[in-house]
Amino acid sequence: MQGQTSQSILDAIGNTPMVRLGRIGAGLQCNLLAKLELHNPGGSGKIRSALAMVAEAERTGRLRAGGTLIEASSGNAGIALAIVAAVRGYRCICVTTDRQSPEKIATLKAFGAEVIVCPAAVRPEDPRSHHSVAWRLAEEIPGSWFAHQHGNPANPDAHRTGTGTEIWKQTAGRVTHVFCGLGTGGTATGIARALHEHDPAIQVIGVEPAGGLYGEFKRGNPVPRDRIPTHLTEGIGEDMLPEVLDLEELAEVIAVPDRDALLTTRRLARTEGILCGGSSGAVVAAALRWCQSHRPGPDTTIVCVLHDTGTRYLSRIFNDEWMKENRFVEERGGQTAGELCARKRAEPDAIPGLISVSPHSLLLEVLELLRQHEVSQIPVVEQGRVIGTVKEDRVVHLLIRDPEAKGRPARDVMDPPLPEVEPGASIETVSDLLREQPAVLVRTRDGLDILTKADLVRMIARWAT
Q1: The dihedral formed by the CA atoms of 309, 314, 320 and 325, expressed in degrees to the nearest 10
Q2: What are phi and psi for residue 276, nearest 5 degrees?
Q3: Whole-model pTM?
Q4: Topology adopted by domain 337-464
Q5: Which residue out of 35, 46, 104, 344 is catalytically annotated?
Q6: What percent of the chain has pLDDT over 70?
């Protein structure tokens, strides 16, 4: 048949959309883009490498008609291989872990795959691990072929000829940075190889869960053999170093806590209309954190690779009860000033401790602190006691009219101290005080802390995600 008709679903692989993240990236000077790999057949970019690996196995005779595909997979690669097997007429066995969502297991079965679930909290060499079980099945079942995405060179090559080349074309060669989740590392490695053929200066930055191993390997640090990742972000992070991952191709590896990854995933759905998985949320969270520290300008074009669809995580990431049970989403009401301070200090870009000055600090020093930490007020402390507050607008107003005032002490321009509350004070109390004051001091166990209107805005934004 002529025209636009494809011969099978496999012909629809690739050429996925590139879109601008205009709302989640609001305020950034750079171009923040998303490569929507979730628009591939099967809902993930793994279909690219699945087809490439099967085609290579067929070409070399390792996979023949009536054979069996076997893979150790966190879900997406297994789903992709199950689709290829369905179209090509093979039996498919996916060996996965008990860390995967119910939707992934159900999807595997929907495409006709046989699913074996193994414990996640064991080392790869343990005979119970999904890697060991997959290898054993490949040895025991006649006519079987183990795809072995972790060591199959067709995996990264599919992304070198496909994903990476598409990114270069879709950005008209203007791409400067790519953020990509690290599972097997095949996607990131392939993209990096493709882009570095055009411009070796392009930075491909790998993203893994907090507590992951890849960053340690990248920095050359020893990794204990008994270290087992415990993250809840699916699809990225491994308990070993895959053969297909070329860390030399990556500029750096950024680790993202589960909470940041999953809340960013929900934000993508509710602000950009993109329903994606947790690894994609981790990628965007890493890019936003990188932008905060590097402050890229309009000449920077960042591409975030969004790996898979969010429909596989409806019972988890997009389930409020599951998120609350795992302490990723706070209940409305009931928070105290001390709890909010603790959460604020746990943020990756948090200012370490309370910024304060003495009454003898010169206004030039005060101005530099205001600029450096992007705060609007600084408490004035003398002998452990808060005696006043220096506010940004008053300092700026004075120095514009009298530049020589930069040598005057903070005591000359300070306002009365900010109101102070105990750590058990309710958020409602803090909110009432902030109607009249720019900030409130909180006397916690670790000393003084400060809450501003911006802190309450961030808290309310978390409620909304």
Answers
A1: -100
A2: -130, 175
A3: 0.72
A4: CBS-domain (3.10.580)
A5: 46
A6: 94
